[in-house]
């Protein structure tokens, strides 16, 4: 997969080759930093959507916040949740996990 590398990804083990991941991951996660946030929220997000990445999460540790996007039928990401501080949300796909931004910076 030639999209640039997300900070974290989830994909089925069988999808990996020795050298790369030739298919879109199930989830791509980007952790924003002052030097990359524009690219993470712009060209990388657009490239992930075009490649068919179903789930895209953006973590902003300085806020702290987590934005959860899901790929819509139109091929664009739509925001499913934006969590800040101690807000929590359990997501079911692509893995079941309860997200809480404050837990990331404690």
Automatic annotation (TrEMBL):
* Keywords, comma-separated and alphabetical: Endonuclease, Hydrolase, Nuclease
Q: What is the lineage of its organism?
A: Bacteria, Bacillati, Actinomycetota, Actinomycetes, Micrococcales
Please list the GO terms describing molecular function: endonuclease activity
Q: Which SUPFAM superfamilies match?
A: Restriction endonuclease-like
Protein name according to UniProt:
Uma2 family endonuclease
Which positions fall inside the Putative restriction endonuclease domain?
Answer: 6-92
Its domain of life reads Bacteria
């Amino acid at each position: 997969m030639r999209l640039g590398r997300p900070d974290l990804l989830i994909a089925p083990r069988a999808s990996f080759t020795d050298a790369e991941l030739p298919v879109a991951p199930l989830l791509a996660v980007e952790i924003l930093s002052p030097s990359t946030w524009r690219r993470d929220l712009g060209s990388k997000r657009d490239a992930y959507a075009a490649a068919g990445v179903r789930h895209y999460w953006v973590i902003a540790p300085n806020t702290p916040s987590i934005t959860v996007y899901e790929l819509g039928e139109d091929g664009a990401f739509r925001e499913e949740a934006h969590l800040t501080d101690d807000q929590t949300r359990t997501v079911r796909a692509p893995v079941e996990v309860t997200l809480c931004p404050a837990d990331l910076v404690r």
